[in-house]
Amino acid sequence: MLRRLVLVLLAAVLSACGRSEPDDGMIHIRYLASPDVGGFSKVIIERFERAHPGLKVDMIEGPAAGDARENMYSTAFMGEEDSYDLAYVDVAWVPKFAAQGWLLPLDALMPAAELDNFLPGDVTGSRYQGKLYRVPIQSDGGMLYYRKDLLAEKNIPVPRTWEELVSAAKKTRTSSIAGFVFQGKQYEGLVCGFLELVWGFGGDLLDSSGNVRIEEPPAVAALSALVDAIHVDGIVPQSVLTYQEEETRNVFQEGRAVFMRNWPYAWNLMQQEGSPVRGKIGIVPMVAGPGGKPAATLGGWGFAVSAYSRHPQEAYAVAEFFASAESQKLAFFKGGILPSRRALYSDPDVLKAAPHMKDLGRVLAYARPRPTHPRWPRMSDALQMHVSAALSRQEEPAEALRAAAVEIRAAARR
């Protein structure tokens, strides 16, 4: 809480400085972003400015931490300031920002036919209450990594179901190699991984009518499976309760796990020179439960137009340019940014440089966003707390999800 307060105060100080338009006769479009890895944004901006004389794009490189940038955007928007014309938003921010009236609907600007060129999950995650508020730029989704060599040694097929994953992990684990690792710490990453199993087991957190379903049998079965994986089957080390993405990746990359749930970013890091698992890994959608279908929790980023911008049309033009196939291809090669356009996952140049993108495209086809609700942060906090308690055996799975459901319903009512 103290850290969040400091971030909010910092954002308030920065935004209090106000926005002063340079006296250069140009229209300036301003947005806040994470550090420009690989410099791809600067190149795209240069290309945009050459193609649009009279427009200038001011990219403010903010903190790497997403919550810090969210607070900076929120502080500016709460003051109804025009500090930013565009907001580069995480998929989970869309409902909160849109519900507050901070973003402009984009349906009249982005043709419906154009949306068909993007991954379905990225489009769904860009909507709130039926309206489009975000142009998808960068995709992301959880997936299952596996050791091809260890499965091949014992002639074990790649698992497609949870039962097959447990069986394969039991047959390949050793005293020094865990069967399965995931993000088990009490934070947002735990919810992302847990939802993949809930969906894969045929359950849901919120249904299409907004009803809370998380205490129902499929979700209880998913949580029970995770608890048993740690405490009964023994395929997951108890240390996983302290893991976020990087701890999980390090264990897997060091050759100390057979299976891993993680995000696409880990692939390139594990294929670098000197990596013990280089050339030994594969990726597939997260396994499903009995009678269920694979699912991936959607991540990813995109541009939204601020409701307080003096230049909304010009701001949308920037978002549109970043979303083009040419720009997304450049972002992939210079910054490792996963495209939101479907065609790029079968692009010959992309596949020549990264053959795994074909498999990754299949994984992302299963991606779906977390519930699009303005109270999602509070709902997530409740789910994190009780799922974590179940994994550490402080609560029984059914008890944990009943308690979470009560708190989630209370958050929804507020």
Explain what this protein looks like in three dimensions.
By secondary structure, the protein is an alpha/beta fold. The chain has 2 domains: 2-140 and 299-368, Periplasmic binding protein-like II (D-Maltodextrin-Binding Protein, domain 2); 141-297 and 372-413, Periplasmic binding protein-like II (D-Maltodextrin-Binding Protein, domain 2, 3-Layer(aba) Sandwich). 44% of the residues lie in helices and 15% in strands. Helix 1 packs across helix 3, helix 9 (188-200) crosses helix 17 and helix 17 packs antiparallel against helix 18. The longest helix has 17 residues, at 397-413. It is globular and about 70 Å long.
Write the layout of secondary structure elements.
Blueprint: H1 2-16, E1 27-33, H2 40-51, E2 55-61, H3 66-78, E3 86-90, H4 94-99, H5 112-115, H6 120-124, E4 127-128, E5 131-132, E6 135-141, E7 143-147, H7 148-153, H8 162-172, E8 178-181, H9 188-200, H10 217-231, H11 245-253, E9 257-262, H12 265-270, E10 281-284, E11 296-305, H13 312-322, H14 325-335, H15 348-353, H16 357-364, E12 367-368, H17 376-391, H18 397-413
Parallel strand pairs: 1-2, 8-9, 11-12
Antiparallel strand pairs: 3-11, 4-5, 6-11, 7-9, 7-10
